[in-house]
């Protein structure tokens, strides 16, 4: 809502206030401010010119050489190419060395050999938006009124010298979508009086509205519908003062009838619509009804629409002539041929309008106000004001009476509150008298009832319903800066993380300590990507109204998002990436409308994990690196009994390089290499991933991490190399060594794997380093030899190994 302080001053004195300070006051008290400005900012030496004569340019078929009076002793010669330039016009002239819109400087120059002393301007060249320029001047220069004085600056004629404050209205403060609403707000902030002009309609006594039209409307969807008729109207351009107020508010002037409806819309916040009465059917009935499914309708913008059942339409008793509260019909448009105007003012159901506006992609000034609410107390007054102005500007006559269907309740809403309640919430010490004064500043009625105040809230503030709303009003007007900055008094309770929160935070720290960077992906993806990498069965949750085709379904895994992140980086030459993400996936079970939210953790790596440097060699990402990160995570979290089982069950994973992860019988997730076909689709090289269900990990029994002091006695290390069958797993050998190594065996580490020509076919060589240590004494060779011999015996008996 763009508010002109000059216009606002007609209702409440504001011209003595600094524009920037007023804007700041509104922002701190009511709603945000998008900006404050004057349209003439940055422009200079732009004046009124009078075209004395013009003749065709000798070297052009569209240019004219004009002699223009700009208030100087001699006329200025200006070359102009506008198609609507004519002798006798008062025009906008940018003098030599002037500045116009777009920070453009105009200089004296030549156009095809003819000297031009400046430029005759269009409104667009002064910085006006294309959408607010009157259509008759959209492709040419703007013509000023005949009484404009040559040589004077044009800014006051065009309203460009007015202070404009762009108020950014929130949905709960739709009362500020009108000049009167802003006037009440400013008056409350500065404790000033609102003065509203009286509206008196002069009606013709010998003609009644009943002779022209009758109206019908369903009361549940149309609380009130009113119509006036103005006859003998001459449709033409509006006076410049109305045009300037409209384009300052961002609305294009059309003609004197339509412009009045938009003017009253801005003044009252009451949408109106003017119909050409002659286009109505012969029975002259205006009926508001629900549209028939598939009913055709052409709106003012020339667009065809196929209506749905539930859309609210205005009809002439037979066919639609308007889409209620949104836009009128092209057939009933007010044109230069219109002589009788049927003027509508109504209150329509906001929810119904919003559904239609959203489906048909209509967001008009009228629909926005009906959706958020309007002041039902001024429907009749706004209708009368518009009828009076149309009759005055169009030299017409207002027919006596108003055709009306339904009556709306305009009674004040009474809310009881105490000063003690307000002070308790705000932490202030306001007296009952001070509180009552604030309500009076807001224009509310106040009655004292002992220690209580009975506040009569007018219907123009439909956002106020309960006593908490009144507390907010007191806080706003009293000033948020004046409220004491004290903390509330309450009994403190120690806070701590829940086990789930602690697990999630620990998992994130472990991932980052392992060298992975955190990624945050969209919670919405495509249906196909949502179905990949599933840990559990479940149905997809699809949106009814997705923002785009790439965000239609709630994610059911984290890896799809991580792979998109990897592909995004690789496409931009960042080919060594290691990312993790912790977040929720959404699985919907049969018979449930709402999905279950499950905490997951996933990681993805491609390229080099470590680059080569003076300290070491490069480390590419591979299966064992991904598996090692998972092992480190689960071990640090205290998960015991973890096993890895080779699997080919995951369609998106490499069938020979993927393992499912179990803790006992509980399935936790998987780790492995992404399938080459999927990597080809994403244009990625070999990529290794894992995904875990953190909720299942949380439910497992954890091993407590108990501090163990470092032994002061030395450790003894022994190596053993074993030749075994190729199908024997490393983990089975390690389990056997640990089982038979005794209490002094502290560590078993595989440090070499060999398969080659020096071994028989079907064999492999595994070399282990065994570390023995006792916390209470120094081990002797006999202690270690006994344990070592037991290990060798067990390995030979169980796996038929050969100790090399």
Task: Tell me about this structure.
Strands 3, 4, 5, 6, 7, 10 and 11 form a 7-stranded antiparallel beta sheet that branches. This protein has a 7-stranded mixed beta sheet with strand order 29-32-33-39-38-37-36, sandwiched between helices. Strands 13, 15, 16, 23, 24 and 25 form a 6-stranded mixed beta sheet that branches. By secondary structure, the chain is of the alpha+beta class. The N and C termini lie far apart (88 Å). The chain is elongated. Helix content is 25%, strand content 29%. Strand 8 and strand 9 form a beta hairpin. Helix 5 crosses helix 6, helix 10 crosses helix 12 and helix 19 packs across helix 20. The chain contains 20 helices and 43 strands. It folds into 6 domains: 65 residues, Phenylalanyl-tRNA Synthetase, Chain B, domain 1, CATH 3.30.56; 115 residues, OB fold (Dihydrolipoamide Acetyltransferase, E2P) (Beta Barrel), CATH 2.40.50; 203 residues, Phenylalanyl-tRNA Synthetase, Chain B, domain 3 (3-Layer(bba) Sandwich); 70 residues, Phenylalanyl-tRNA Synthetase, Chain B, domain 1; 201 residues, BirA Bifunctional Protein, domain 2 (2-Layer Sandwich); 88 residues, 2-Layer Sandwich (Alpha-Beta Plaits), CATH 3.30.70.380.
């Amino acid at each position: 809502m763009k508010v002109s302080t000059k216009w606002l001053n007609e209702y409440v004195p504001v011209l003595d206030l600094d524009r920037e300070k007023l804007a700041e006051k509104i922002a701190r008290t009511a709603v945000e401010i998008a900006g404050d400005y004057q349209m003439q900012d940055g422009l200079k030496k732009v004046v009124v010119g009078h075209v004395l004569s013009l003749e065709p340019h000798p070297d052009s078929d569209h240019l004219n050489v004009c002699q223009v009076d700009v208030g100087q002793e001699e006329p200025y010669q200006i070359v102009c190419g506008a198609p609507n330039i004519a002798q006798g016009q008062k025009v906008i002239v940018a003098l030599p060395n002037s500045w116009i819109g777009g920070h453009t400087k105009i200089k004296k120059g030549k156009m095809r050999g003819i000297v031009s002393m400046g430029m005759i301007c269009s409104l667009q060249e002064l910085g006006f938006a294309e959408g607010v320029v009157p259509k008759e001047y959209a492709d040419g220069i703007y013509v000023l009124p005949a009484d404009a004085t040559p040589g004077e600056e044009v800014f006051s004629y065009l309203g460009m010298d007015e202070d404009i404050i762009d108020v950014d209205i929130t949905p709960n403060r739709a009362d500020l979508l009108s000049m009167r609403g802003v006037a009440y707000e400013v008056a409350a902030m500065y404790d000033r009086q609102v003065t509203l002009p009286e509206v008196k309609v002069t009606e013709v006594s010998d003609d009644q509205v009943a002779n022209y039209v009758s109206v019908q409307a369903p009361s549940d969807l149309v609380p009130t519908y009113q119509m006036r008729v103005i006859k003998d109207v001459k449709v033409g351009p509006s006076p410049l003062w109305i045009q300037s107020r409209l384009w300052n508010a961002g609305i294009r002037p059309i003609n004197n009838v339509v412009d009045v409806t938009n003017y009253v819309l801005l003044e009252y916040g009451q949408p109106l619509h003017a119909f050409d009465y002659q286009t109505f059917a012969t029975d002259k009935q205006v009926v508001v009804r629900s549209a028939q499914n598939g009913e055709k309708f052409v709106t003012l913008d020339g667009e065809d629409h196929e209506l749905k059942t539930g859309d609210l339409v205005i009809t002439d008793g037979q066919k639609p002539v308007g889409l209620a509260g949104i836009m009128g019909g092209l057939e009933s448009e007010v044109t230069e041929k219109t002589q009788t105007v049927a003027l509508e003012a109504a209150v329509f159901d906001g929810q119904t309008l919003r559904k239609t506006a959203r489906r048909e992609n209509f967001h008009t000034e009228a629909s926005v106000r009906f959706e958020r609410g309007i002041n039902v107390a001024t429907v009749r007054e706004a209708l009368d004001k518009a009828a009076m102005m149309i009759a005055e500007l169009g030299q017409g006559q207002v027919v006596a009476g108003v055709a009306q269907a339904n009556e709306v309740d305009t009674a004040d809403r009474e809310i009881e509150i105490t000063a003690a309640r307000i002070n308790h919430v705000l932490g202030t010490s306001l007296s009952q008298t001070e509180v009552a004064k604030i309500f009076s500043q807001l224009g509310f009625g106040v009655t004292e009832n002992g220690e209580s105040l009975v506040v009569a809230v007018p219907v123009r503030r439909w956002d106020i319903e309960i006593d908490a709303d009144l507390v907010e009003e007191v806080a706003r007007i009293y000033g948020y800066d004046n409220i004491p900055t004290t903390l509330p008094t309450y009994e403190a309770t120690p806070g701590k993380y829940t086990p789930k929160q602690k697990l999630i935070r620990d998992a994130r720290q472990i991932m980052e300590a392992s060298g992975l960077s955190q990624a945050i992906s969209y919670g919405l993806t495509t249906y196909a990507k949502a179905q990949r990498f599933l840990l559990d069965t479940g149905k997809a949750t699809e949106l009814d109204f997705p923002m785009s085709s790439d965000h239609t379904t709630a994610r059911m895994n984290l890896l799809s998002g991580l792979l998109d992140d990897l592909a995004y980086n690789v496409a931009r030459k960042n080919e060594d990436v290691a990312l993790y993400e912790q977040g929720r996936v959404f699985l919907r079970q049969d018979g449930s409308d709402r999905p279950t939210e499950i905490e997951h953790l996933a990681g993805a790596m491609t390229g080099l994990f470590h680059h080569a440097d003076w300290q070491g060699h490069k480390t590419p990402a591979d299966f064992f690196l991904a598996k090692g990160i998972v092992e480190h995570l689960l071990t640090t979290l205290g998960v015991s009994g973890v096993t890895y089982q080779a699997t080919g069950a995951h369609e998106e994973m490499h069938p020979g390089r993927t393992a499912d992860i179990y803790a006992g019988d509980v399935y936790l997730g998987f780790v492995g290499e992404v399938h080459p076909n999927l990597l080809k689709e994403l244009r990625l090289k070999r990529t290794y991933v894992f995904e875990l269900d953190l909720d299942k990990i949380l439910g497992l029994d954890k091993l407590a991490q108990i501090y163990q002091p470092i032994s002061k006695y030395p450790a003894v290390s022994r190596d053993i190399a074993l030749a075994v069958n190729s199908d024997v797993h490393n983990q089975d050998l390690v389990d056997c060594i640990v089982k038979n190594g005794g209490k002094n065996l502290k560590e078993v580490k595989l440090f070499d794997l060999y398969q080659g020509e020096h071994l028989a076919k079907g064999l492999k060589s595994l070399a282990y380093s065994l570390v023995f240590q006792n916390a209470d004494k120094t081990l002797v060779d006999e202690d270690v030899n006994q344990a070592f011999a037991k290990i060798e015996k067990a390995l030979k008996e169980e796996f038929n190994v050969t100790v090399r």
